[in-house]
Amino acid sequence: MPLFFRSGEIRIAALSGALLVAALGPRIACATLGEPESTVQNDVTQLRASIKSSEDRVGYRIHEIQLPGSTLLREFVAPNGTVFAVAWNGPTKPNLQQALGKYFDAYTAAPRPRFVDRRHMNIQQGDLIVQGSGHMRALSGRAYLASALPSGFNLGDLH
Amino acid sequence: MVFTRALRMGLGVAALCLSAISCGGGGGSGTSTIPPPPPGPTANTASVIVDQGPNSAGSVNTLFTSVTVCVPGSTTSCQTIDHIQVDTGSYGLRLLAPVLTLTLTAETLSSGGSLVECTQFVDGYSWGPVALADVQIAGETAKSVPVQVIGDPRFTAVPSQCSGTGGTQEDTVASFGANGILGIGPFQTDCGDCDTVAENLYYACAATCAPTTVPLVMQVPNPVTLFAADNNGTIIDLPAVAPGGAVTLSGSLIFGIDTQSDNQSGTQTVLTVDGMGELSMTFNGQTLANSFIDSGSNGIYFADSSISTCTTTGFTTFYCPASTLMLGLSIQGANGTMANNLTFNVGNAQTMLNDNPTFNVFPELAGTLPAGNAGSFDYGLAFFYGKRVAVAVDGDMTSVGTGPYIAF
Q1: CA pair distance B193, B174, nearest whole angstrom
Q2: Cβ neighbour number for residue B105 with a 10 Å cutoff
Q3: Residue B108 and residue B209 share a domain
Q4: Is B218 in the same domain as B269?
Q5: Are the C-beta atoms of residues B204 and A138 closer than 8 Å to each other?
Q6: What is the CATH number of the domain that holds B374?
Q7: Most buried of A10, A100, A152, B243, CB within 10 angstroms?
Q8: Is B161 an 8 Å CB contact of chain A?
């Protein structure tokens, strides 16, 4: 599989990914952050979602996933094929247990900071950073692995 | 729905006419017939306070009021609950089950399941059924209002689609930081399209729970929109506070805009908000399109990497400049109207909290937002200090415009 393919080709790859998931059934890891790009399709299947677009940027690629509701989930893939970040926005959050995979427990176990107001989140647990802001009907956030960011990646583009 | 709202508006206008007659009718007319006294205006003002929160929780910049709820139709099975947070950044009345002594019946969907909500916040979620209650605040009443009962022992099994959204399960008074929340933002309900899209907010629960669509009338509404009168918006009126803060701050939550003599619009700036309740703010030469003014935010939150952040554990997301900074801000409504040349101060969060451990009001408390994330400036409760801020509901008219807007 080529490292970077155009959006027309993603459908074929996505289809084969879905077949792979179907073949392996529950044994396949339900994970994305820190996992190979093939798990993007696993997310899509698990979340009953669809890939809205896939776009190559300089130094990375974004898969934008439309969840069953109105929320959009974006998964960022580094040149080495690893999902290094996810970002979301919409009236609800995505299933982060799915999208953060093995990092979900660290995220949920993070101590709450002082003076929480339900509008902000800024968690650092080792290599994992999870941040969010917003209010009812418009929630946004992102999670990334600090050590996995492609060189030259601008965090301002992670949304 | 539109018709119902229009009808309510009409009744509101009728009430206004009656009170106008009573105001202008003073003095003896010389006739012997004494007309019956017109009904007095509804008491439309509730007291609000910024204090330490329930159980001395140590809240900062958090506005509270009291709300009375009754079993629908009852005048005796009622309970007044204090420390309900007043929140212009959410929609709906939500009560924490541990403080609720009434038994409120969950709404039942046509499928037969109970309606339960997974209310989602940036840092967590709250799970609980949507039940009907009569709601009274000051003299205002709304009958059979869908309200959420958070942490209800009748519905303890949180489905994985809800818990999987992650963060803290905010189902206790301690984790929620309030006995409940009164969401009075500028829209009618807490979801834009849940009547047609299963947004992973509302669930139908029978043996198991599954996301569901919900008819509009069953969704959790901003309860003000269901008041019999004064239902087109709210005004939060708070006095100014010293720059260093205060222990408490008391003010008023006034219901209705231009419906009574005490809630008249004046010459304030009217900024229409977009479909998400947001405005455009310009800060540091950057236009931040997803900005908002929010009584439910406890600080002034923005991204500015040139300001030092605090170093103490638990405070690292707040700003700690060596000396207080005065910064400029302008705000543009979706209607194009500008509020220019606003200023706000950023104090040293660690110093202000250490120097005044009994204070709960900190107008200069400011915190970070992730750079580039959503292009947002979140101006919290400090915006309301020393102001009279009106929030008009989507589609409702006042003398100075049509909601959704915020005016100050």
Answers
A1: 31
A2: 12
A3: yes
A4: no
A5: no
A6: 2.40.70
A7: A100
A8: yes
Q: B271 and B160 in one domain? A: no
CA distance A86 to B173: 32
Give the pLDDT band (50/70/90) at residue B168.
very high
DSSP β-ladder status, B78-87 and B180-184: parallel
Interface with chain A: mutation pick from B293, B373, B394, highest number of A CBs within 10 Å: B373
Q: Quote the CA–CA distance of B48 and A43 in Å, as a whole number.
A: 46
**What pLDDT digit, counting tens, does each position of A126-139 carry?**
999 999 999 999 99
Q: How far apart are CA A133 and CA A145, in angstroms?
A: 19
Is residue B387 situated within a structural domain?
yes
Q: Give yes or no: residues B199 and B269 share one domain.
A: no
Report the residue from B60, B191, B369 with minimal CB separation from A115.
B60
Count chain A–chain B contacts defined by CB atoms under 8 A.
171
How distant is the Cα of B176 from the closest Cα of chain A, in angstroms? 9
Q: How many structural domains does chain B have?
A: 2
List C-alpha distances in Å: B55 to A112, B59, B82, B246.
19, 10, 11, 19
Cα gap A28→B279, rounded to integer Å: 44
Tokens 């947004």 found at: B199
> Is B23 within the bounds of a domain?
no
Total-model pTM = 0.88
Q: Is B165 on the interface with A (CB under 8 A)?
A: yes
Q: Contact A122/A111 with Cβ under 8 angstroms? A: no
Mutate to test the interface with B, among A72, A95, A117 (most CBs of B within 10 A): A117
Residue B118: which domain range?
Answer: 93-176+186-222
More confident: B299 or B370 = B299
Q: Distance (Å, rounded) from C-alpha B81 to C-alpha B149?
A: 13
Residue B261 CB neighbour total at 10 angstroms: 10
**DSSP at B38:** P
Does B87 map to a domain?
no
